[in-house]
Amino acid sequence: MVAFLAKRLVLMLATMLVASFVVFAVSEFTPGSVARKSLGPFATQEQVDILTEKLKANDPLPVRYGRWLGVLVGAIPDPLQDPTNGLNFSDPRGARYFGNFGYSTLYKLPVNDVLWDRLGNTAILAGLAFALIVPLSILFGVLSGLKEGSGLDRTLSVLCITFTSIPEFASGVFLVTLFVILWPVLPGTSPLDPSGGWSVPSQMVLPVAVLVIYDFGYVARMIRVSMIEVMEKPYIRTAILKGLSPRQVILGHALRNAMIAPFTVLLLQLNFLISGVVVTELVFAYPGFGRMLLEASLFGDISTVEAATLVTVAVAIVTQLLGDLGYMALNPRIRLR
User: Fold this and answer.
1) Residue limits of the ABC transmembrane type-1 domain (predicted)?
2) What's the pLDDT tens digit per position in 134-167?
3) I need a surface site. Which of 23, 91, 190, 222 has the fewest CB within 10 A?
4) What is the C-alpha to C-alpha distance for residues 190 and 25, in angstroms, rounded to an integer?
């Protein structure tokens, strides 16, 4: 197990390094220069050229990537915070620390001040949605799997397929029309600001509902297929012939084995709930991570885009690792010593 974790840690670091270089290289094709974006649209070309020279922005790509990586790990100070540049950029953590993603030209703040706040908001939204997706998916999937071909199975399957087929913006607009316009019992936006007369919990209801409606049906279908397959196994028939109650058969034998394959699918939904909820956050004006990434991309805020991309890659890698560990816990045949 220790060797497995050590190997995965090395692979994670290598993946992050490659991803950071790819993102840094791709950002070279974005219009505009760092100096121009830092100084603003009204700066003269002479001022842009002077700042470009101070930032050494004309150096070869590998050199600039090494410098950016040095700033990220805290090996060298952030050149944008050099007082001689005249930018008045400052970070309360200092110009040299581990995890320094630079300065956001869109929000006029250090990237860390924006990134982690928005990521925390999305984590709350994702956590609430995930806490509802898991039990609903298991409930619908198990009921359908146990009653294969019945009216209940067909009804639940149609519901799951229908919900999964509805785009997020469509279900968002429908829920807003229903619970904001026709029956004004919920707020139509979720800025997480109670000063508008709506509590923060009430502002979370519609965004969470949209994510649950869109996502739980897919997972439920996966659990249904796995449950049908498990219920046909010989050990299930043996348990039934031994006189075990249906509850004991399902909870003690069938459910755990049926969750082996869908467990990885469930964890992979965290990737979607963290970085793939842009539409939901836009519909409800939710100050989250996906909305921040979209705004930074449209504006050309390279520092924020690079930081958000690395965080997204890190979330994907960690969830895959957790999925492997959970798979090993559920399936003793592949456990490593």
Assistant:
1) 119-323
2) 999 999 999 898 888 888 889 998 999 999 899 9
3) 23
4) 36
User: By C-alpha distance, which of 316, 306, 310, 218 is closest to 274?
Assistant: 316
58 and 159: one domain? no
pLDDT digit string, tens, across residues 251-284? 888 888 888 878 878 888 888 888 778 899 999 9
Number of domains in the chain: 2
Please give the mean pLDDT across all residues of the chain.
86
Flag whether 9 is in a domain.
Answer: no
- 118 and 142 assigned to the same domain: yes
Instruction: Kindly tell me if the per-residue pLDDT of 114 is higher than 70.
Output: yes
Give the position of tokens 């359908």: 144
Domain hosting residue 189, numbered range: 113-334
Can you tell me the distance from the alpha carbon of 122 to that of 195, in angstroms, rounded to the nearest whole number? 20
Cα 292 to the chain's mean position, in Å? 12
Q: Is there a single domain that holds both residue 148 and residue 279?
A: yes
Token duo for residue 59? 């150096």
